[in-house]
Amino acid sequence: MEELSISRPYLLQADDLTANDIQSIFSRAQFFIDNYKPGVKFDDLKGLTVALTFFENSTRTKLSFELASKRLSADSISFQSSSSSQKKGESLIDTLRTIEAMGVDMYIVRHVCSGVPGFLQANTCGAVINAGDGKHEHPTQALLDTFTLQKHFGDLKGVKVCIIGDILHSRVARSNITVLRTLGAEVKVCAPGTLFPRRLNYWNVEIIEHIDDAIEWADVALVLRLQRERMESGLLPSIREYSNYYGVNFEHFAKKPELVLLHPGPVNYGIELDYNINQYPNVKIQTQVTHGVFIRMALLSLIAKQLKVKRAKVA
User: Is the peptide bond before 197 cis (omega within 30 degrees of 0)?
Assistant: First the structure.
């Protein structure tokens, strides 16, 4: 097996990843795909302890990280803020110190507040992986999305990806724009004006106003979940109107069946997506979930390698 590595012993945001880092993660993920069989465990994290520290609810991300760490032979502990001493007033840094004192090496962190993974990384000798922080980023979701596309297209240079939906609040959009561009994809967005930071277009992405134009232009539609709190916040006139103007439906696929569709889940069927589109083979939602486990296995494996090198230098 080729020698693979990444440049940093942590992952806080998509900008931490070079093109070589991304391809190393993809190569390692493919190794796991090719060699994994039910019941098989790899030794990449043997002797290391991983803490799943989720301060915000999660299903797909938490379960896939948990499964990934187990497949790599890690000792893992699970932390839920709802049942922790934070309910009694314990600070975030005190929680970190308590977990760290138990001999934890790696922290998978999801938090409702932007910047928490970076804060924790600055206060620990361990490795922090951002599993989603506020409205900031979700880099492992971008990795699994992009891996899914690379598996489909072979090379992402020049592939046209339109991200559709609530860009304003989406950490998935932020990470995907960075990772996709790093690999040479062309990215545009399609969103209501109230759900896009028009005055802060720091990505310098082009906005496509109409969903039909977006579908016509794109090779890939990456559709975002519309969070239910946005539906009642005054940012949208109504759910029905949003669905009519920005939902991807059966008619779109009937006109362009070669379109590849991704969605980070969970899907609000009947709002973002038509119920009937799952019949198309280029709808990759379940493939994304499968790839998520192997991408996170690859990331944990390569960060563990960096962590061991870092500690060897200190010793």
Answer: no
Nearest partner of 106 among 65, 44, 49, judged by Cα:
49
Q: What is the pLDDT of residues 164-175, one digit of tens each?
A: 999 988 999 999
Residue 262 bridge partners (DSSP): 222
Cα angle 216, 246, 218 (rounded to 5 degrees) comes to: 25
Three-class SS state of 40: coil
Task: Inform me whether the pLDDT recorded for 84 exceeds 60.
Answer: no
pLDDT at 148: 98
Residue 160 clears pLDDT 80, i.e. is over it = yes
Q: CA 88 → CA 52, 79, 238, 248, distances in Å?
A: 20, 15, 39, 45
> For residue 174, what are its two tokens?
């932020």
Residue 127: partners with Cβ closer than 8 Å, 6 or more residues away? 9, 10, 105, 106, 107, 121, 303, 304, 306, 307
Residue 199 has pLDDT above 80, yes or no: no
Which residues neighbour 13 within 8 Å (Cβ) at sequence distance 6 or greater?
A: 118, 130, 136, 137, 139, 175, 178
- The average pLDDT across 167-191 equals 95
Q: Is the pLDDT of residue 31 over 90?
A: yes
Domain range annotation of the chain: 14-137+289-314, 139-288
Measured distance CA(306)–CA(129) in Å, rounded: 13
The DSSP string of 244-292 is: HHH-B-HHHHHH-TT-EEE--S---BTTTB-GGGGGSTTB-HHHHHHHH
Burial of 140 (0-12, 13-18, 19+ CB in 10 A): buried
Copy the structure tokens of residue 185.
Answer: 């994809």
The architecture of the domain spanning 14-137+289-314 is 3-Layer(aba) Sandwich (3.40)
CATH of 139-288, one of 3.10.450.50, 3.30.460.10, 3.40.50.1370, 3.40.50.720: 3.40.50.1370
Which of 158-167, 176-185, 236-245, 246-255 shows the lowest per-residue confidence on average (mean pLDDT)? 236-245
14-137+289-314 shares its CATH topology with 139-288: yes
